């Protein structure tokens, strides 16, 4: 359906009935799980015209608040790929809830690339990567191991 294609293109979650899912029904009813993507009206379910207009105004206000800043700050803890270790298996692409990694053909070699604007740094891709080629910046295995070692040292000392 068209809604499924829109959801896939913009990484918008859908409910079981096919309507788009808002980030939080009470606290952020026009935002989606993808930053900068807003929804209003009947795409989240049946609504009358006054509710649709109110939601559209809220979505427009959210967009204005974003663009009035002049720049957007992206998450710094995002996935990165060691292309020398990547097999291009596509597990990261299949599992990512934000559709950030994509396997592409680069000079005849299949390799994963991460769209940094979509990545939220959840680390799901790093967990399923069979070669360890995928990691999350600021949360590498070595950094996490160092934190655990420091915590166990404090606990035992």
Description:
34% of the residues lie in helices and 11% in strands. It is built from 5 helices and 4 strands. The strands form 2 sheets. Strands 1-4 form a two-stranded antiparallel sheet. A two-stranded antiparallel ribbon has the order 2-3. The termini are far apart. This is 4Fe-4S ferredoxin-type domain-containing protein. It holds the Pfam family Fer4_21. GO terms for molecular function: 4 iron, 4 sulfur cluster binding; metal ion binding. Keywords: 4Fe-4S, Iron, Iron-sulfur, Metal-binding.
Annotation keywords:
157 residues, alpha+beta, Alpha-Beta Plaits, 2 domains, two-stranded antiparallel ribbon, 5 helices, 4 strands, 11% strand, globular, 4 iron, 4 sulfur cluster binding
Tell me the layout of helices and strands.
Blueprint: H1 2-10, H2 49-67, E1 79-81, H3 91-95, E2 101-106, E3 109-114, H4 124-128, E4 134-136, H5 141-156
Antiparallel strand pairs: 1-4, 2-3
GO molecular function: 4 iron, 4 sulfur cluster binding; metal ion binding
Pfam family, one: Fer4_21
Keywords: 4Fe-4S, Iron, Iron-sulfur, Metal-binding
């Amino acid at each position: 359906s068209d809604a499924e294609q829109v959801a896939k293109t913009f990484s918008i979650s859908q409910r079981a009935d096919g309507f788009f899912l808002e980030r939080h029904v009470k606290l952020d009813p026009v935002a989606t799980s993808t930053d900068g993507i807003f929804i209003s009206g009947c795409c989240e379910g049946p609504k009358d015209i006054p509710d649709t207009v109110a939601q559209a105004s809220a979505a427009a206000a959210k967009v204005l608040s974003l663009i009035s800043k002049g720049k957007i700050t992206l998450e710094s803890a995002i996935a990165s790929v060691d292309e020398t270790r990547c097999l291009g298996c596509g597990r990261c692409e299949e599992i990512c809830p934000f559709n950030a990694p994509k396997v592409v053909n680069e000079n005849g070699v299949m390799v994963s690339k991460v769209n940094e604007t979509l990545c939220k740094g959840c680390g799901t891709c790093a967990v399923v990567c069979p070669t360890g080629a995928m990691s999350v910046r600021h949360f590498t295995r070595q950094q996490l191991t160092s934190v655990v070692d420091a915590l166990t040292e404090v606990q035992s000392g």
